[in-house]
Predict the 3D structure of the following.
Amino acid sequence: MKFTKLRLLGFKSFVEPMEFFIEPGLTGVVGPNGCGKSNLVEALRWVMGENSYKNMRASGMDDVIFAGSNQRPARNTAEVTVYLDNSTRTAPAGFNDADALEITRRIERESGSSYRINGKDARARDVQLLFADASTGSRSPSLVGQGRIGEIISQKPTQRRGLLEEAAGISGLHSRRHEAELR
Ligand code: ATP
Ligand code: MG
């Protein structure tokens, strides 16, 4: 699976619909302070199921919705869609019947989030499981936030094992076992 595009609408500073193409060779995003570089990475983490608003640098999940500016009123919804190329058919079982995957998360002020996978309603858990094996996902070690390096250095051994399991792509197994035990 490969990310190909991110679409944002009303997410943080991205009030107008915005499409960000993730093409081979992309190595960096540059721009002045406050232009939205970190917001872009947060949008990716959010659509993959991040459920901690603190990890979104917010004081509540509704804070990811465009809050308004001098020129524009606040919005009541935010939506992020991530597009994936699955032509190699490496998506986990249950998600692997199409060449492309489209995952959308939408939030409405005071009503929480909803998810869709290829246009069908899905649970946050489904989205998290979809990404759990791909060494990606909202808690992926490949998304290193500010202050995270220091945190990793001072982690306890069991926490650090969790990080290695993510990197090795086996944390999806644990997630699915946990899911099976709950049923
Ligand atoms: P730096 O180079 O300093 O790291 P950056 O490009 O990473 O900057 P971000 O942190 O992504 O910038 O963007 C910060 C901007 O996003 C701020 O101007 C902030 O006001 C704006 N912002 C964050 N949340 C919202 C929101 N809910 N509504 C409107 N604007 C928001
Ligand atoms: Mg930044």
Notes: The longest strand covers residues 77-85. Residues 12-13, 31, 33-39, 63, 65-67 surround adenosine-5'-triphosphate (ligand 1) (CB under 6 Å). The domain at 2-182 is CATH 3.40.50.300 (Rossmann fold). The chain has one domain: 2-182.
